[in-house]
Amino acid sequence: MLERTTEMNLLYDFYGSLLTEKQQTLLELYYLEDWSLGEIAEHQGISRQAVFEAIKRAQATLHDLENKLGLLKKYHERRKIAQELSQQLERYPEAKKTVEPIIARWLEID
Amino acid sequence: MLERTTEMNLLYDFYGSLLTEKQQTLLELYYLEDWSLGEIAEHQGISRQAVFEAIKRAQATLHDLENKLGLLKKYHERRKIAQELSQQLERYPEAKKTVEPIIARWLEID
């Protein structure tokens, strides 16, 4: 089975630009458009097995990039710390109101 | 001339793990150890011109990765926002004292 999870979507968000154009097309159809392997095969004029193998290789590449750069791990760490920051600021409502938009911009950088 | 700047050092920090082992060795000697091209050539048993070309190609790869992933750009954006956050918190010394260690941990994630 191929993974079809939120994590794979996030990995694709982070590293998709490093894949080949062909790999990007396949993953977009599979993950973002939610097509079946059969539908992609018919549309691309290749076998279902070829689609399966290509997506599996692209997934392996995304996991390899995550092992090397850890952007998804860092993304989760930042979100956790932002939560902690918000909780700590509960005690200082005025300060919280002032810095909350800045924290929101910070999180958007991911 | 090859670039030998803080920016190249940062790019290597961010993307070095995606280069080949050979490229990593060359860039480490050139940027981190501050060896000359001639010294590297002698140590590696290749010509000075070959070292030059290899480092130039590795630099191009680092720039290409930055164009695609923008980690260095994001790094600078985060630092700018952290500064803004610190400035805004000047008015709330107690809140600042509480959240400063959390902000420090946030920045360390980069």
Automatic annotation (TrEMBL), chains A, B:
Residues 48-75 form a coiled coil. Transmembrane segments: none annotated. It holds the Pfam family UPF0122. Keywords: Coiled coil. InterPro entries: RNA_pol_sigma_r3/r4-like, UPF0122, UPF0122_fam_protein, WH-like_DNA-bd_sf. Might take part in the signal recognition particle (SRP) pathway. This is inferred from the conservation of its genetic proximity to ftsY/ffh. May be a regulatory protein. Belongs to the UPF0122 family. This is UPF0122 protein SAMN05421852_12312. The lineage of its organism: Bacteria, Bacillati, Bacillota, Bacilli, Bacillales.
